[in-house]
């Protein structure tokens, strides 16, 4: 794996841990950036962000690992 893939995986792990925490210990609402957000809205936001990161992971994996083809023409 490459550095970009590792960085995206770390973000996914953080979001997944937060989602797990929300599902295990739900509260009626959460304070985020000074704003009150309902449990459902917050969970939906996290799930959306997780989906975006999964798409970025596919791109990062291609950037880090190819498929690349190097052609050399004679010497």
Structure characterization notes:
The protein has 75 residues and is mainly α. The chain has one domain (3-64). The chain has helices spanning 3-24, 39-65; strands at residues 29-32, 35-38. A two-stranded antiparallel sheet has the order 1-2. Helix 1 runs antiparallel to helix 2. The chain is rod-shaped, with a radius of gyration of 19 Å. The mean pLDDT is 90.
State the helicity in percent bands: 55-70%
Number of strands: 2
Taking all residues together, what is the mean pLDDT? 90
Number of DSSP helical runs: 2
Instruction: Choose one word for the global shape.
Output: rod-shaped
Biggest beta-sheet profile = 2 strands, antiparallel
Euclidean distance between termini CA atoms:
33 Å
Brief descriptors of the model:
75 residues; mainly alpha; 2 helices; 2 strands; rod-shaped
Secondary-structure blueprint of this entry?
Elements: H1 3-24, E1 29-32, E2 35-38, H2 39-65
In short:
This protein is mainly alpha-helical and 75 residues long. It is built from 2 helices and 2 strands.
């Amino acid at each position: 794996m490459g550095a970009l893939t590792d960085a995206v995986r770390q973000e996914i792990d953080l979001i997944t841990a937060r989602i797990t925490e929300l599902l295990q210990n739900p509260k009626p609402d959460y304070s985020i950036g000074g704003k009150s957000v309902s449990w459902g809205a917050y969970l939906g936001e996290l799930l959306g962000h997780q989906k975006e990161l999964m798409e970025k992971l596919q791109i990062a994996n291609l950037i880090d690992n190819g498929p690349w083809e190097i052609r050399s023409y004679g010497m």
